[in-house]
């Protein structure tokens, strides 16, 4: 597929996991990509792999919890590749603790990355896209945007928030030629879930009708589809990619 030839995507949290798979999917459709992440070594390895496969890719060290860093990442993308057509706001972290035991610093850390980070991205990406009169943004939500999960207070709260941010951004800017949607992955096999106890993951996977882990590529294809012209009338939506978790 070459429908994204000449287009440019910036992806946060794309050094590894779902974001790295999405970077590959954008490149396969012809787009150039900029990977924005705090993990420099992993990000550079991902960029090298994309280039080795014939893609155009770059990395900019970015902490999404810092608005200046996000602003600089957007400017780096535009100055490197000349434009910004698509964004996947995907950086996320996880902190397990029941509410009463959750440290204030940990709450703030998760909120700053998972929720404020998405806001900063939307704000600075939109400044370019609104001027251009076109663009498509996808934010990474979760099945935990719909339900509570024991010991995941901050994560669940932020993922609910990502859906609210997505819908409001689409409402505010729906007539501008820019579309803003979210994906809600179920249990996906990535470094993030590798850190979760096996019995906990088994319970989550058991709720999917597919009864298996999803793979990062399966989420990546949904994210790039949402950015593509094939999704031209999809705006303010949340697309579940969860093997049937939400349906059960
Ligand atoms: N894996 C799953 O089962 C699952 C399910 C639902 C939603 N998600 C969401 O998908 C997204 C990607 O998760 P993943 O499973 O690929 O996890 P992952 O841990 O493999 O990847 C997350 C990436 O985000 C980056 N990141 C973390 N903090 C950052 C910051 N401050 N600034 C920039 N980058 C930062 C990490 O370095 C990493 O590259 C996250 O938002 C996560 O919440 C994952």
Distance between the termini: 34 Å
- The string of secondary-structure elements, in order, is EHEHEHEHEHEHHHE
Q: Which runs of at least 5 residues are low in confidence (pLDDT < 50)?
A: none
> Strand sequence of the main sheet, in spatial order?
3-2-1-4-5-6-7
Number of strands: 7
Largest sheet: 7 strands, parallel
Instruction: Name the CATH superfamily classification.
Output: NAD(P)-binding Rossmann-like Domain
Helix content: 40-55%
The 3D shape can be described as globular
The whole-number mean of residue pLDDT values reads 97
What small molecules does this complex bind? nicotinamide-adenine-dinucleotide
Radius of gyration: 17 Å
Broad structural category: alpha/beta
Percent range for β-strand residues: 15-25%
**Total individual domains:** 1
Structure characterization notes:
The chain is of the alpha/beta class and 248 residues long. It has one domain (8-241): Rossmann fold (3-Layer(aba) Sandwich). The chain contains eight helices and seven strands, in the order βαβαβαβαβαβαααβ. It has a seven-stranded parallel beta sheet, with helices on both faces. Helix 5 (153-173) links the parallel strand 5 (135-140) and strand 6 (178-185). Helix 1 packs across helix 8 (216-227) and helix 3 runs parallel beside helix 4. The radius of gyration is 17 Å and the shape is globular. Nicotinamide-adenine-dinucleotide (NAD) binds next to helix 1 and helix 6.
